[in-house]
């Protein structure tokens, strides 16, 4: 049985998102149901945001300690040493060392069973049915995002979970997935064609097929 307190809500501004499944839920193998999720990348140079996150986690721990059904009477340091403690704020240089996007960053993995409310900077709502939605909400862009930290005690493990709240997309930032665009990947070909019409030979329509 899992015990959980109400939680601490915090707003993070101008952070980058990765593994963004915000328009449609995603189900990992072994999970009971699909969930909306994303990772939030926080530069280690952004000490104000890191402090805000750490303070919220500490507050969530205090809530758990004040609830006997969650952390009451437990030795949290002993749980940590035993590998039974979950800290939601992770060091990208340690746990994601093979991913350049996580370099010099801390990160949070947020999830929710409920679709997050997403708006752009002009307060226009974005859903999966919004035209061009996948180009408005994507891995690599910068957002303002709210997250909720909750203390939990489940199956012998304790810690702080991090949940997805609302999102404001700022529509900037290079994509982190999907490879280069066709225009970028073949830029030299297009430049060559612009200066040499022979590069277009064989691309004209065949009169016999018209």
Summarize the structure.
With 210 residues, this protein is of the alpha+beta class.
Tags for this model:
alpha+beta, 9-stranded mixed beta sheet, 5 helices
Structure characterization notes:
The chain is of the alpha+beta class and 210 residues long. Helix content is 20%, strand content 34%. It is built from five helices and nine strands, in the order E-E-E-H-H-E-E-H-E-E-E-E-H-H. Strands 1, 2, 3, 4, 5, 6, 7, 8 and 9 form a nine-stranded mixed β-sheet that branches. Strand 8 and strand 9 form a beta hairpin. The N and C termini lie far apart (69 Å). Mean pLDDT is 84; it is low at 178-185 and 197-210.
List the helices and strands and how they pair.
Layout: E1 3-4, E2 8-26, E3 35-43, H1 47-65, H2 76-81, E4 85-86, E5 90-91, H3 92-95, E6 105-112, E7 118-120, E8 142-154, E9 157-169, H4 182-185, H5 187-195
Parallel strand pairs: 4-9, 7-9
Antiparallel strand pairs: 1-8, 2-3, 2-8, 3-6, 5-6, 8-9
Residue windows where pLDDT falls under 50 for at least 5 positions: 178-185, 197-210
Shape: globular
Compute the gyration radius: what is it? 23 Å
Roughly what is the average pLDDT, rounded to an integer? 84
Largest sheet: 9 strands, mixed
Rounded to the nearest angstrom, the distance between the terminal CA atoms is 69 Å
Structural class determined from secondary elements: alpha+beta
- Strand-and-helix sequence, N→C? EEEHHEEHEEEEHH
Estimate percent helicity. Answer: 10-25%
Number of E-type strands: 9
Oligomer: single chain
What proportion of the residues form beta strands (DSSP E)? 25-35%
Query: Number of helix segments?
Result: 5
């Amino acid at each position: 049985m899992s015990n959980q307190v109400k939680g601490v809500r915090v707003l993070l501004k101008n952070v980058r998102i990765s593994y963004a499944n915000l328009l449609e839920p995603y189900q990992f193998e072994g999970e009971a149901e699909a969930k909306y999720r994303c990772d939030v990348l926080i530069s280690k140079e952004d000490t104000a945001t890191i402090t805000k996150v750490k303070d919220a986690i500490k507050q969530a721990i205090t809530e758990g300690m004040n609830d006997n059904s969650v952390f009451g009477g437990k030795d949290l340091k002993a749980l940590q040493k035993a590998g039974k403690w979950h800290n939601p704020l992770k060091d990208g240089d340690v746990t994601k060392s093979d991913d350049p996007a996580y370099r010099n960053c801390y990160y949070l993995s947020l999830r929710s069973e409920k679709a997050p409310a997403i708006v752009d900077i002009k307060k226009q709502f974005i859903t999966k049915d919004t035209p061009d939605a996948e180009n408005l909400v994507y891995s690599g862009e910068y957002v303002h995002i709210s997250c909720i930290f909750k203390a939990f005690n489940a199956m012998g493990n304790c810690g702080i979970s991090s949940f997805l709240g609302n999102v404001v997309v700022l529509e900037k930032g290079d994509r982190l997935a999907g490879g280069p665009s066709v225009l970028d990947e073949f830029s030299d070909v297009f430049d060559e064609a612009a200066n040499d019409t022979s590069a277009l030979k064989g691309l004209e329509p065949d009169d016999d097929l018209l």
